[in-house]
Amino acid sequence: MTSANSSTNPSTGAPSRTPSSGLSSDPTGAAKSPPTIECRELVRIFSSTGVEVQALQGLDLTVERGELTAVVGASGSGKSTLLTILSGLDVPTAGRASVAGHDLLAMGRRERTGFRRHTVGFIWQQTSRNLLPYLTAAENIAMALIVARSPKRARGARIGELLDLLNVGDLGDRLPAELSGGQQQRVAVAVALANGPEVLLADEPTGELDEANSEMVLDSFRAVNEQLGTTVLIVTHDSGVSEHVRRTVQIRDGRTSTEVLRSTRTDHAGLEHEVAEEFAVLDRVGRLQLPQDYISQLDMRDRVRLGLTDDHVTVAPVRERSSPAAQDALEASGTDADGGPDAPRTAASTSEGDR
Ligand SMILES: Nc1ncnc2c1ncn2[C@@H]1O[C@H](COP(=O)(O)OP(=O)(O)OP(=O)(O)O)[C@@H](O)[C@H]1O
Fold first, then answer.
1. Domain 2-280 class, CATH top level
2. Residue 154 in contact with residue 165, Cβ under 8 Å?
């Protein structure tokens, strides 16, 4: 089921903290820290040889401190563009973006360098891009500590801690070529954590790995998130990643379209169950994207009819009146020809009962 995520927490049924809405008010009234990542109406236009490509088309995204989030989307949907902006490697064309209190559009060169050195850690898809091939795993981490100007005397202990945290404690003396792809990525996570970043960003970190290695790497992200409290954002085209994170945001055509939130619920017998619920993202001006399969199934095109009831909104296809055959078929099925009051209920709903 897909519903707009504007008011309840799916795991408790209580008023939620609405992760995608961008609101930072706490329903309990307690003061709440600002989101670690916040994007509003983010636009990135690339111009090359006279052709403009809108990679991001007004993207909204809010990630609270300490969240572990995956951003998934098809090839070309804008995932890497978003990540290079959040890591300070690229600057958006318009909109607002901030990470750990740094305004990514207003940052000067010096702040940007400091931001990349101390605030964010980055993991690339290509295992070979993350590690220096002629240094051992431990030396790669040491190099990152030197760049971060970590005190020399603390480095040995920190390297050991990071290798243990990433479950590669016994592999510190190996060169990257002597490690499996999954082990290399786990060392890469350790390198990215060396500067003690508030935010860890990963671009397709499992893209070159088989299933078993992917699982291990994703478990490492979870361990880092839970044990260090680091905010983690992973972008991937692999929708299977959503099973490893509590929150998955789907990007379509440069904008966030849906979110899957996973939670643990306890039944009457005291047994715990993982529950995943899908929500449509409603932006600040009321726009949402209907899932493509809903649109196809109901053959919705160009315009739809909206209806407001006490507690939900309906979206119904508009049928052409001109075709008598279609009219007959619709009447036979008990559906109003123009998608009026008898029209079937469709995807978009803000009904409390639907959540
Ligand atoms: N430097 C660039 N110059 C021109 N167009 C670009 C540039 N970078 C990205 N694009 C375009 O922007 C769009 C989004 O690209 P992006 O790499 O962000 O998508 P993606 O979702 O990460 O795709 P993939 O999963 O294939 O890596 C694409 O149409 C791409 O061709």
1. alpha beta
2. no
